[in-house]
Specification:
The protein is 43% helix and 15% strand. With 235 residues, the chain is α+β, with helices and mostly antiparallel strands.
Length: 235
């Protein structure tokens, strides 16, 4: 059987991720399963704050800060230098050094493009000032007066969100094609399958989507209200 054109278009990069998500949504709607539709809808529209996100959208980075030592009249300023977190508990480190990327695919693409246009080296997450004393303590330097601190995200991992989603879409579409035949009409004949067969198909797609889903870091996100500087903003 010849490959469906929608699969070839996605594999050859002839359609963007957003378009591929919408096409897959049309097909998944026929299966009438909320979990499957939730994933594709969240990737299109963005993940709400109260929804657990896939681990490929939890991105880590390096903490940088500007601080000075000494008095106001006589001090040394250190600009944009790495700030280690020393002996802070691992849970606090994870909370500071990671961000949950909740934007939909198209919105995230716009954020990255805006960052590149402004010649930013990467996306940043500001750290609230109430964390500064703990960071200074973690550096074993209570004389450190932190002026600003932010986490610069690992850009390769941010960019990897797109191929990760596309890979899942290819897996889903290829599996649907094997079960229902050509997909180019964006229609699948669920009447050709028994209820047990449909349940097995749904379960298999569920595994394709969520097999790498992990518990999100920090219940309710301790730095819950932090944005990623001027780069990533809440919709």
């Amino acid at each position: 059987m010849a490959k469906s054109q929608i699969i070839k278009d996605l594999a050859n990069g002839k359609v963007d991720t957003q378009t591929a998500l919408k096409r897959t949504k049309v097909l998944l709607q026929d299966l009438e399963n909320d979990d499957l539709l939730d994933w594709v809808n969240y990737e299109i529209e963005g993940y709400p704050d109260d929804v657990e996100i896939p681990d490929y959208r939890v991105i880590g980075g390096q903490l940088y800060g500007t601080y000075f030592k000494g008095s106001m009249a006589n001090h040394i300023t250190y600009n944009h230098v790495p700030l280690p977190l020393g002996n802070l508990p691992d849970e606090i480190k994870e909370d500071i050094l990671t961000i949950k990327i909740r934007q939909g695919i198209e919105a995230l693409k716009g954020v990255i493009a805006e960052s590149e246009k402004n010649d930013n080296s990467g996306l940043m997450k500001p750290i609230p000032a109430e964390y500064y004393p703990y960071i200074a303590q973690a550096n074993n330097d209570l004389g450190m007066m932190i002026a600003t601190a932010s986490v610069e995200l690992n850009m390769p991992k941010v960019l990897n969100i797109f191929p990760k989603v596309e890979s899942k879409l290819l897996d889903i579409l290829s599996y649907l094609e094997k079960q229902f035949g050509n997909l180019d009409d964006l229609d699948i004949d669920i009447e050709s399958k028994s209820e047990k067969e449909l349940n097995n198909i749904i379960n298999h797609i569920h595994v394709l989507i969520y097999n790498d889903k992990s518990v999100t870091l920090g219940d309710n996100n301790k730095i819950k209200n932090s944005n990623i500087a001027s780069s990533i903003k809440e919709d």
